[in-house]
């Protein structure tokens, strides 16, 4: 049995999808990584559907069912996000646990935000630090999350610093103008004469 056939069978049986629905799976393979030891959960599968709507329908069914069982193990489905997005989404773990404890509804919209449905209204947070700080102010017991640097801050940290060059307001080194180069050349030639 090919991986594509296995995935189709797994989804049909687990989610109750009728046999008349065509999956149109372009690719399916195991996620990269070493083979897990005996007794550990198996590696994930990565599946590429030809149609976006079918993928969204399958994910919606799986999320509503909160996963399904296969050979005594729980199977969950989710989008395959880039590593940086996964890292940022994982930062909300403490906040989501505190919200679950208080039975407060929340969502995690793409790319890495947290939308919380408080009784006063809906609040959307753009970072885990912002979310945990506000949740503490609201009286929820959650550990504060230290903020991560933005992409611009990371670029500035890794940027080469040039000595003797001007730096503009954005922290980027400015190249000297033609006139400044000419004046520096004239100064050097005057000093050597």
Automatic annotation (TrEMBL):
InterPro entries per the UniProt record, alphabetical: L1_C, Transposase_22
PANTHER family (alphabetical): L1 TRANSPOSABLE ELEMENT-RELATED
This protein's name: Uncharacterized protein
Source organism (scientific name): Knipowitschia caucasica (Caucasian dwarf goby)
């Amino acid at each position: 049995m090919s991986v594509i056939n296995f995935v189709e069978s797994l989804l049909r049986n687990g989610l109750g999808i009728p046999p008349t629905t065509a999956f149109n799976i372009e690719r399916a393979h195991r996620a990269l990584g070493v083979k897990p030891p005996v007794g550990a959960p198996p590696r994930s599968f990565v599946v590429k559907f030809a149609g976006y709507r079918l993928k969204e329908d399958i994910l919606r069914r799986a999320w509503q069912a909160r996963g399904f069982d296969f050979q005594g193990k729980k199977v969950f489905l989710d989008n395959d996000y880039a590593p940086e997005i996964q890292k940022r989404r994982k930062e909300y773990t403490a906040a989501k646990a505190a919200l679950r404890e208080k039975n407060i509804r929340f969502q995690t919209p793409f790319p890495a935000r947290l939308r919380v449905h408080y009784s006063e209204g809906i609040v959307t947070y753009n970072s885990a630090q912002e979310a945990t700080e506000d949740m503490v102010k609201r009286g929820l017991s959650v550990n504060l999350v230290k903020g991560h640097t933005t992409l611009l801050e990371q670029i500035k940290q890794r940027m080469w610093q040039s000595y003797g060059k001007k730096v503009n307001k954005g922290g980027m080194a400015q190249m000297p103008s033609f006139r400044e180069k000419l004046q520096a050349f004239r100064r050097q030639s005057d000093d050597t004469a």
